[in-house]
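Dear support,

I submitted the protein below through the web form. The confirmation email said the job was done, but the results page showed an empty box. After a refresh the structure appeared. I'm attaching both so you can tell me whether what I see now is the final result or a partial one.
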Amino acid sequence: MNTLSWHAAREAVHQAGIAAILPPRRQKPSETDGMTLAAPLTALIDLPAFPTSSVDGYAVRGAGPWTLTGRVLAGELPPPLAAGCAVEVATGAMVPDGLTAIIRLEDAKIENDVVAGTPRPKPEWREIGEESKVGEEMLPAGSPVTPAVIGLAAASGYDMLDVRSRPRTAVLVFGDELTTEGVPGAGRIRDSLGPLLPSMLRHAGATAVPGFSPRGPIEDTLESHVAAVQAALDDADIVCTTGGTMRGPVDHLHATLKELGAEYVVNTVAVRPGFPMLVAALPGERFVVGLPGNPQSAVIALASLVVPLIAGLTGRPLRALPQVVLGADIAGRGPDTHLALARLADDGTVMPVGHRGSAMLRGLAQADGFAVIEAGTDAVAGQTVKFLPLPGMQP
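What the results page shows now:
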C-alpha cells in the first residue's frame, strides 16, 4: 500500500483526470453555464466593432456652440459630422466620423437647436478594438464558463462554443447499519452522506446521474458492491462510494475494485482527518473514489481528491490554494497533513470551529473549509497557511 502525501495525491489525481479528459462538444453559449472551455475564446471581430458612445449626449465637431442637425440611435449608421455641428447620440450608438467630443446630456444646454456645453476631459466614446482585437485570445482553454463568459461569447459573435461538460457522478452509500428515514437508534445510524454528497458534487462542478444521487444503502456483501458499482459505471464518469475503504470483515471496496479490474491512482493519503481515502481508474476512462464513512472525513476526501479529478477531466488547471492568516493556534498531526475545519472570521482571519470530530457534522455546517497545517508542523496565530475551501465556498 503506497501512502502519498496530501499534496502529491491531489496532483496525481489531477493528472489522471487530464489523461482521461472528457471529449469536447459544441453547444450554444446559453447552454454552457458551468461547463469548461475546450478551446480558447478568441475574438472573432474587433470589440467594439465600431466606435460607440458610452453616454447619452451630443456628438460635436470643432468649437462651440454647435448647430443641432439630427439624432443617432443605437443600431443606426450616422453620416459624417460637419464642423460646428452636433448630433444627439444614445448610449451604444455608433458615433459619426469627424466628432471631436461628446457632451453629456446633463452637461448640455439646448436653445433654438443650438447646443452649448463643456466636454469632460476624457473622451466619452469607445474606440474600435478597445476591448479586444480580432484574433486575440480573450480566455484560454480550461476556463470555467460563467454567466459573464457566456455574455462575452455572445457579444463577440459566437453562435456555438467548444466546451467540456460537467463530469457525471454517482453516489453509492454502503452500510447495513444505515437508515434513511426517521430518528436513529438501536444501533442504526441515519445516513447523512447520501443527502449531502450530491449537492456538494454539484458545487464542485459535477452533474448527477439519475437514479444514483444517491443509491443505497447497499448491502454489505461483495456481490452487492460489485453489482452496484458496475451499474453506476454504465453512465457515470466518477462513482463516489462511502465507507468500506478499510479492509475489515464487511469492507468490500478493495475486493470490488480488484474484481472490476481497477488500478489505484491513490491508495491512502497521509492526511487527518480523512484516512483512508482512495481513487481507482477503471477501463473506459471511469473512476471510483472511495470516501470514508465518517461525514467530515468523506467531505475532506471529496474536497481533496474529487475536486482535482473534476478539474483534470474538464481540462481545468489544478487551482492554487489561497493563503489565509490564522486567528488561533492549530496543532499539527505528526507526519500527516492536518486539514483543520475552520471558518472565516469577521476580521479576515481564519478560526477553527468546534464539534470537529470526523464523525460530526455540526462543525462542518459552520465552516468555510480547512486550514492546511503541513505535515510535521504546528501552526500559530498570525501565521499564513493554505486554505482548502469547501466546494461552493470561497475565502
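Response: this is the final, complete result; the empty box was a page-load delay. The domain at 323-389 is CATH 2.40.340.10 (Beta-clip).
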